[in-house]
Amino acid sequence: MKIHFNWKRFLLFFFVIGAILYLTKSFWMTLGIILLLFVIDHFLKLWDERHA
Q: Which residues of the chain have pLDDT under 70?
């Protein structure tokens, strides 16, 4: 089983994590925001697959 890894998406998420960490100066708040973003991303991907 080959795993496809999107490096552009990885770099974008890394940049967003760094920016949120810089703005909030709190690891736990950054972690919570990133988890919410992952959940939203997951549901948007499912919605897009159903409507495509």
A: 1
